[in-house]
Write a sequence for this structure.
C-alpha cells in the first residue's frame, strides 16, 4: 500500500510525465518511430539551366555588337560580328579555283569525246582497209588462175599482186592508227580521276571558306536571355574568347540529399520547393532522375580516405527535379537561385 502511494504520489506523477515527454521530444527530433516522417527535405538545392558560353571559332576584330546585357534574343539573332573581309576574299579565291577545275573537267569531256571519235574513225578505216584487202586477194587469185590458163597477160597478174601488197600495207597502217587512237583515248581517260579529285578538293575549299565566313557571325544558338556582353567594337578576340552567354527559359532543380535520406527516394515522387528569392509561394515538381554517384565522385579533386585520419561525412546525392508546367512563379526562376526542397516519399506522380 505504501509502495503504490509512493509511486502515484503528487510528487512523482509530474516527474514521470516529464520523463515521458522528454523521450517523445527526442524521438520526434530524430524522426524515430512513431514520429518517422515520409517527407525528406534539404536546403542544399539550386535552380539549374543550360547556360551556354558563346565564343568565336575564328580570331579577328569585332566590328559590330548589336546586343546589350541581359537582352532577350531569338535563335539565329546576330550577337557579335567579326571583320569578314579576309574571309570574303578567301571565299572568292576558292570559288575562282573551283571554276578553273570545273573548266578543266569540262575540257576533259570535250577532249575525251574527240579522242573517242578518233578511235571510231580509225576502226572504220580499218574495216575499209580489210574490205580492200579481201577484194585484192580475190583479184590476185583470179589473175593467177587466168595467167596459168594463158588467158591473162603477165602485166595484169603483176598489177593484181601489187594491189594485194598495197592492200595488206593499208590494213597494217589502219591497225596502227587504231592502236594509236586507243592509246590517246586511254591517256585522256587516265587523267579523269585527277581532274575529278581536283574539283572535289576545290569544292571542299569553297565549303570551308563559306564556313569560315559564316563563323565571323556569332549568333544565338537558342532562344533565351543573354548574360553580360563583354565584346566591344574594335576589340581583337582570339579563338575561344568568351563574348557572352545565353540561357534558355527552361529550368529545373538539383537537390543534394544526404545519403541517409536516399532510402525512400525514387523517380516519379512528387516534390515541392520554395525559392529564397521568391517568398510569394511554393512550386511543385517531381523527381525525374537520380545521380548514379555521389557528388564527390564528379569533383576534380576527389577525397582520398585511404591516408591520414578519417572523419565520416554523409555524402550528398544529386537528385534532379522537373518543374511542373503552368505555374505562375516558374518564369521567374533563374539558374543559381537557392531553394528548399521537400519530397513526399509516399506519393508518385502519374
Amino acid at each position: 500500500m505504501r509502495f503504490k502511494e509512493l509511486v502515484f504520489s503528487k510528487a512523482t506523477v509530474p516527474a514521470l510525465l516529464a520523463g515521458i515527454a522528454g523521450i517523445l521530444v527526442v524521438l520526434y527530433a530524430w524522426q524515430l518511430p512513431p514520429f518517422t516522417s515520409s517527407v525528406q527535405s534539404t536546403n542544399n538545392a539550386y535552380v539549374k539551366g543550360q547556360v551556354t558560353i558563346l565564343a568565336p571559332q575564328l580570331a579577328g576584330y569585332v566590328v559590330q555588337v548589336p546586343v546589350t546585357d541581359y537582352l532577350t534574343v531569338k535563335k539565329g539573332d546576330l550577337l557579335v560580328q567579326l571583320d569578314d573581309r579576309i574571309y570574303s576574299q578567301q571565299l572568292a579565291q576558292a570559288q575562282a579555283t573551283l571554276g578553273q577545275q570545273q573548266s578543266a573537267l569540262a575540257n576533259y569531256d570535250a577532249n575525251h569525246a574527240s579522242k573517242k571519235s578518233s578511235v571510231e574513225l580509225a576502226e572504220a578505216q580499218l574495216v575499209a582497209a580489210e574490205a580492200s584487202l579481201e577484194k585484192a586477194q580475190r583479184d590476185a587469185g583470179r589473175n593467177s588462175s587466168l595467167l596459168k590458163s594463158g588467158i591473162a597477160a603477165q602485166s595484169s597478174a603483176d598489177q593484181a599482186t601489187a594491189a594485194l601488197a598495197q592492200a595488206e600495207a593499208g590494213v597494217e597502217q589502219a591497225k596502227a592508227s587504231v592502236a594509236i587512237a586507243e592509246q590517246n583515248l586511254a591517256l585522256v581517260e587516265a587523267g579523269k580521276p585527277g581532274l575529278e579529285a581536283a574539283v572535289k578538293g576545290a569544292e571542299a575549299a569553297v565549303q570551308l571558306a563559306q564556313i569560315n565566313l559564316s563563323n565571323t557571325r556569332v549568333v544565338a544558338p537558342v532562344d533565351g536571355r543573354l548574360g553580360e556582353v563583354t565584346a566591344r567594337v574594335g576589340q581583337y578576340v582570339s579563338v575561344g574568347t568568351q563574348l557572352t552567354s545565353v540561357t534558355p527559359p527552361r529550368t529545373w532543380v538539383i537537390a543534394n540529399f544526404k545519403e541517409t535520406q536516399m532510402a525512400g527516394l525514387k523517380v516519379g515522387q512528387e516534390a515541392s520547393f520554395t525559392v529564397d528569392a521568391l517568398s510569394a509561394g511554393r512550386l511543385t515538381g517531381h523527381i525525374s532522375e537520380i545521380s548514379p554517384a555521389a557528388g564527390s565522385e564528379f569533383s576534380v579533386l576527389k577525397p582520398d580516405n585511404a591516408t591520414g585520419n578519417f572523419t565520416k561525412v554523409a555524402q550528398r546525392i544529386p537528385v534532379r527535379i522537373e518543374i511542373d508546367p503552368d505555374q505562375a512563379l516558374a518564369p521567374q526562376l533563374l539558374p543559381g537561385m537557392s531553394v528548399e526542397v521537400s519530397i513526399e516519399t509516399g506519393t508518385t506522380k502519374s
About this structure: The CA atoms of residues 278 and 329 lie 8 Å apart.
